[in-house]
Structures are given as structure tokens and as C-alpha cells.
Amino acid sequence: MSSRSLGTVARTIVDIVPYAGFRAFYFLRSAVWLLVAAYGLAAETAAQVATSKEIEALERILRENELAIEAGDRLKGTQLNQAFHFMLPQIAGLPVLNGILRRLWLQMGPHISDAYIKGGRAMIEHHYPVVEALKRHDSAAASMAIVDDILLGGKPILAPIARGTAPQARPA
Asked: How far is CA 101 from the centre of its chain?
């Protein structure tokens, strides 16, 4: 599937789902699966083209994020987590995907921010294997690592959604 057609499908889902009257759980679950697919593609593609300068930028973000977590700075930690994630489609040269992900982050961001301090290092520990895979230009490992980040590292975010206690999602 081309990034153009992927963009059309994902934009349509992002536009329709919040207005369809589904409870937050169903919308957020859909958003998580879109994030998995989109970031998997971004990481896979980024691994093929990442430069040492781009990898160093990701490592710098990780170091700063460690400090933010240590200091209990939820806002800065959340911003750095977002910066890390948005670098992947940027490195991959996938601007359409980047736009789709920005819309999803607008809707998922409050859930990420609410869970950030409680999640602690779990929120970024899977970023390290992403960086290592990019260094090796290992597309499959990069994709698997970012999926692990979303599904395993994201447990503090996903748990309230699964329990049905997550705040109502707002359309972007």
C-alpha cells in the first residue's frame, strides 16, 4: 500500500471514528492499532536510511528524557517522548504519515501525559532497542521495537483504556 493511500485510509478513520459515537475505549483502541501500524512502517523505513547524525539526535532525546523522568517532569518527558516518536517518520521521509500521526497524538496526548510519571522508565525503555536497530539498519528489529514500545511501554496508557476508565477522547 502506498503512503498516499495509507494516508487517505488513516485520515478517514481518524475523521470518522470520534464522531461515530463510539465510547472512548473503542476509539482509543483503534487509535493504538493505527499507531502500531504507522510507527512500525516509520521505524522500518527509518532503519533503511538513518544517518549517524539522526541517530545521535535520537540518543540525545533519550538522555534528556531520562533526566526528565528522574526529575519527575511529566511535561518535558511527554514532549521528549513525542519528539522521539516524530523523528521516526521524519527520518524515514514519510511526511504524509507524519501528518496522520500528529492528528493521532492530539487525541492520545492527554492519555500519554496522564500516564507518563506513573509509567516511569517503561515509557522509554523500548526506545533503546529502536535506536540500536537503526544503527544496524535492521528494519524488522526497528519495527518490532517500536511496536513493543507502544504495546508494552504503553501499558500505563492502555490500562485505563482497557478498564474503561480513560477520559473521553476528543476529536482533533
From this structure: 8
